[in-house]
Amino acid sequence: MRALLGSLLAVAALFAGAPAFAQAQQRSDFPPAIEAEIRGAKESMMSDQAEALRHAAAIDGLALGLRDARRRALALATARWLAAEAHIRNEEPAKAAPLLTDGLNLIRSIPEPIKLRGDLLMSQGAFFMARDQAVQALESYQNAFRIFGEVKEPRSQAIALQNIGGLYSVANDDARAEEYFHQAAVLFTDDPVLSLSLHNSRGNVLAKLGRDAEAGKEYETAIVIARGMNKPLLEARLLSNLARSQVALKRYDDANRTITRGFELIRGADADVLRRHLLATAAALASERGNIGEALRFIHGTFDGMDLAKTTVEFRSDHFYAYQIFNKAENTREALKHLQAMKRLDDESTKVAATAGAALMAAKFDWAKQQNQILLLQTQEAERRVRYQQTLFLLIGAATVIVMAALGWGLITVRRSRNKVRAANVVLGETNVALEKALKAKTEFLATTSHEIRTPLNGILGMTQVMLSDQKLEAQTRERIGIVHGAGVTMRALVDDILDVAKMETGNLSVEAAPMDLCAMLKDVTRLWEEQARDKGLAFRRELGDAPHWIVSDAARLRQLVFNLLSNAIKFTEKGGVTLRAAAKGEGDARRLRLAIEDTGIGIPREKFEEIFESFRQVDTSTTRRFGGTGLGLAICRNLARALGGDIMVESEDGRGSRFIVDLPLVLAEAPQAVVADESAAGLDLVVLDRNPIARSMLRTLLEPRVARLRFAGSVAEALPMLEAGGVSHLLADEATLKVEAEGPARALAGLRAAAEGVALAVLWLKPDAETAAELIAASNCKIIEKPITGVGLIDAIIPSAEENSGKREGDPLVSRAA
User: Which of 575, 612, 176 is nearest to 368 (CA)?
Assistant: First the structure.
């Protein structure tokens, strides 16, 4: 019978969305392990009663470990309640009875009302309903309703009212049942589970009254809610009810879709009774469509393995369908069996309804009083909401006043401070302009001063190296000149650093990429530092096995970068060694050049990694006093690395050494073909255009032993007669001398080229930019030799692959960059 089915659904709804099992002050009174098991039992109760029973058993075991007697009793009673609910839902009411009695006995010593007692009474009412004991069920529901009212649980009260309505539905008092359902809906409206149960119960009542169209609408609403809750078995039960209403309304296609959906939902689930109800409904549909064979197959499946003399009241409609189908099939014997079973159930239902009706009529539950209590609860709830809204309004009003006052005060304050900020901005702007001018003046001063210092300094270095190259020089004099030369080299490095910083600050740091021999450059730049490392007793390793040879980069900038890093490594290392590694990484467009300079020196603290790349900064002032230096080297290195398209990183451990890694883009270049000279140095006639006497003296010492004839000219006008006289094979012109010519360097070179057809023309120029180099080459088809350059490098640039007059050059100590 669908009325009884509805009451059972109400019980199911009770647990599906039930809140915590105890009063507010008790909800967090259990250890987390017990709380987790309680949640697990509730979550699995609707779909897997066996899992719920396992959780209840776990709660029972954990409860025995609680020392507090009250908490232990509450936990044990909770385990009994959950286990009893699982058995009732699994249609095993006999197993639930002792659990419910034991649970109520466990909390009997607790005098105050608690929600757990109400939950146990609700489950007890469901047990009595399953046993057709209406009076006991009504008493349990009444007591539960009273307890829920005392602990302020209107939702649970609404569930109790729905279950009482189910009792009246069983007693065929549908009008009274509808009143209880209505009161339950009014008492608590914010729960989809209760709404589902209400719509199903109303559908059952309307179906009993023969109003199948209205019943179908109620079932459809309940199905939508069940689908939103993701409860497939509950949805399938509702679909079975809906399909029977659709068959009664002769909406056969709709009924067929509904039944199909029901079977899909229970596929693979343990729902034997529900599957039998769906089969009976499918049989009724097939019979109505005239397909008796299919109807017989379905109805046999419905009662397969069942004793027709022991079926329960919920199979009454299924027996009726079977009677009609067998009667149509003219199987009077089977039809009679189901008719007898249906009569037996009708007699039982009538007896139950009569008994329940009499019991309910005699019950002491005063409907009018109960209705007044409900109205009182509603009034109290309404008053509470009004008080809450009033309090909320006052708080919002007060907050609004405070915010408005704060905004007003803030507006006044902002207005006052805005004028101050405006005046401060004016002063700040003027200060910024002054600072920019001062910075620009400082940068220009540094650049100009550095250039002016370099000229005499280069002369000093050149002449000291010329003097040091004299093998006849006395040892004491050589030592003194060596000291002068070392001091000059140090001073020139400082000047170069200051000049580079000035260029970086003004954005004039230029990079000129050209093919270069990386390995040759690294070997050349490490020669000086290799010697200094040996003098300090340090090991020096150069690992170039994985390095590319010819690449496209700025040789001068790359040389300067490696030079500075090696200088720092040797400066800050007292024992151990220094290693230079170069290697190509990656493939294709992702190729990178990695240069690593490692030392075993004093190391750098991790928090100082960024600070060391700032200008004029070292790790601390003690290192400055101990090791010297301006603190510009690493700042220049970072700017150079970034100008070359890469970056520099540091890895270090304080006291154990450092590793500086330069990561640059790698573009490979083809090695140039060797050029074989077609003339010997013995026939070279070289004219040098340089007005600086110091430079002349240095160049004379350097070049005279290597050419047949060497002459100097202080200006273009002085050089032209020499060229016009003929016999000159090479002309070397210096940048400074060309710049003083009135017509400018390019035109001066053009005039020299016009007078010196076939003469090899070379120009010494300090790091020319691309535009200047192009202009000079276009004017005279000259060779640009970039300064600074070593003596050996200058000779190779002027006289490539030539046999020199002086014979061997391997022992030449001239490595000055002053040329």
Answer: 176
Q: What is the pLDDT of residues 193-247, one digit of tens each?
A: 778 877 888 788 788 778 889 888 888 888 988 888 888 888 888 998 999 888 8
CA 632 to CA 247: how far, in whole Å?
Answer: 95
At 601, list the tokens. Answer: 């020196």
Per CATH, is 681-798 categorized as 3.40.50.2300? yes
Number of alpha carbons in the 13 Å side-chain half-sphere of residue 455 = 12
Rounded to whole angstroms, the Cα distance separating 280 from 316 reads 11
- CA 667 – CA 514 distance, rounded (Å): 10
Pair 147, 116: CB distance under 8 Å: no
What are the helix (H) ranges across 289-363? 292-302, 316-328, 332-362
Whether 616 and 673 have beta carbons less than 8 Å apart is answered as: no
pTM above 0.70, yes or no: no
Whose tokens are 């939950």? That residue is: 119
Burial 205-219 (b: 16+ CB within 10 A, else e): bbbbeeebebbbbbb
Q: Where are the domains of the chain?
A: 1-185, 511-665, 681-798
Integer Cα distance of 745 and 775 in angstroms: 9
Annotate 628-683 with three-state secondary structure. CCCCCHHHHHHHHHHHCCCEEEEEEECCCEEEEEEEEECCECCCCCCCCCCCCHHH
Domain 511-665: CATH architecture, name and number where available: 2-Layer Sandwich (3.30)
Q: How far is CA 787 from the centre of its chain?
A: 52
Judged against a pLDDT cut of 60, whether residue 25 lies above it is answered with no
Pick the CATH number of 1-185 from 1.10.530.10, 1.25.40.10, 1.10.3090.10, 2.60.120.10: 1.25.40.10
Distance CA 71, CA 67 (A): 8
Burial environment of residue 613 by CB neighbours within 10 A (0 to 12, 13 to 18, 19 or more): middle
As a whole number, the mean pLDDT across the chain is: 80
**For residue 142, what is the enclosing H or E element?**
helix 134-150
